[in-house]
Amino acid sequence: MKRTKRVVSMMMAATMMAGTLAGCGSSEQAATTGDSTVAQETKAAQETKIDDATTPTAEKADGEVTELTFWYSWTDKIQENNIALTEEFNETVGKELGIHVTAEYQGTYDDLHQKLQAAYVAGETPDVSVMEISSIRTFAENGVIEPLDTYINAAGADMSDFHDGLMQNSYINDACYGVPYLRSTPIMYMNKTLIEEAGLTVDGMKTWDDMKTYATTLHEKTGNYGISIWSYNWIFEAFMLEHGSSVLTEDEMATNMNNDAAKEIVNFFKDLKDSGAAHIYSAADADKVKTDVMNQSTAIWYGSTGDFTYYNEVAADCGFELGCCFIPMAENYGVTSGGCNLTMVANIPDENKQAAWTFIEWITQKEQTIKASTNTGYLPSRKSAADSEEMNALYAEIPQYKVALDQLAYSTGRPMNPGYVEASIELQDALDAIWVNDANVDTTLAELETKMNKLLNE
Fold first, then answer.
1. Distance CA 377, CA 352 (A)
2. Strand ranges of the sheet holding 225-230, from the earlier edge strand across to the other edge
């Protein structure tokens, strides 16, 4: 069901979610719709951006060059990766075919989504854009992005090489609108040094009961927080799956946020906070989890696999050993995938569309996927990349890189109901109310259910 009249308001609402990770990270905890991505960029990083990718223009035999613009999100390692791959394309395939791509940073996923909607209305869009996976349906149904099947079929592209768990948010009404690019799952990070100081082992957290024991013991023996967390809808999606439920019903027309599983999860962290074992922040203060990590005042936190290279550097700089593992099991393991797909904008000139596809296809090929995963910590989205000699050598050297890949076996896609953008804000506000401001759990979740169901059905 299309919701064209609501797309502008939804995109405006998405920008209010700045507090998400990007699920996908570097140095600021941002609240995006998934990533995806946490710990992406500090204000200082936003003010000191790396220059956009530009290279000398290569001309075709007839002297004409197809100029493309590529919009991306996040700074730090992710920005470095996007710029390096764009420059490599310009110097190789682009030079040969007379295609030149300029990579332009647009902020968080939410920032980019809002800018893309405004650019589409103004008729001044980029040619290629990353898109957080849960937003694919909204942009596809409103005609902002182009179906890619014609290009995929003409190129004979092997879409079966992408991991099945990463494809669920790529297709809308059986048409492909996005190619997996920088993709992630949430994982649990640990300060192994603090854990061992408390007399615990890093491989002992298998269940939620273990997680409670670890958090409590760490607080009692070290005086630090056992866990730091913030009101993050993407992580809560994983928690619900682990408890045999989900944030939304299967048809995505109602929420399960007032059921027993949701109450159990909310009370689990509330009780840890009340005991002093957990440090819980509001969505607006998400970046303070990163501060706890840097100050070594917490031992356990959650984030995107895309944050691994960032946190590994933090650990080295701050003098502790970093660990990461599956989010411990409740009834089962379960996570939603996150991060971004690459999309082609629909209203670009026809002559740019084939060039745009050439760039999308190239940057998501096996070789580039290996480089992106190595550079950022994001999943190798292609099976062939994951099975490559290069990635296996990296896994042998740094086993933590493989955690998210193994956890992918328990992953699913993210909700794509267009109303979920605004409903997610309500979800995070409710968690803020309970975890930060001590609101009543039953009353708050009952009110949340009413608000979310209304938004999901508008």
1. 31
2. 278-281, 225-230, 298-304, 186-191, 322-325
pLDDT band at 62 (very low <50, low <70, confident <90, very high): low
> Coil, helix or strand for 393?
helix
Residues facing 171 on adjacent strands: 176
| Short-list 114, 117, 73, CA closest to 376 | 73
Task: Give the pLDDT confidence of 428-439 residue by residue, as tens digits.
Answer: 999 999 999 999
Strand order in the sheet with 338-344: 99-105, 66-72, 128-132, 338-344, 179-184
Closest C-alpha to 143, from 120, 124, 127: 120
Overall pTM surpassing 0.70 (yes/no): yes
Token match 């910590």: residue?
Answer: 377
Q: E-assigned strands of 16-106?
A: 66-72, 99-105
**H or E segment and range at residue 338:** strand 338-344
What's the Cα-to-Cα distance from 360 to each of 59, 104, 128, rounded to whole Å? 20, 15, 8
Cα separation, 379 vs 184, in Å, equals 6
CA–CA separation, 257 vs 269, rounded Å? 15
Q: 248 in helix, strand or coil? A: strand
CA dist 83 → 12, 68, 70, 343, 373 (Å): 28, 14, 10, 17, 14
How far is the C-alpha of 224 from the C-alpha of 221, rounded, in Å? Answer: 8
Neighbours of 409 (CB within 10 A): 11
Cα–Cα distance, 394 to 433 (Å, whole number): 42
**Given this model, what pLDDT does residue 455 score?**
98
Type of residue at 305: T
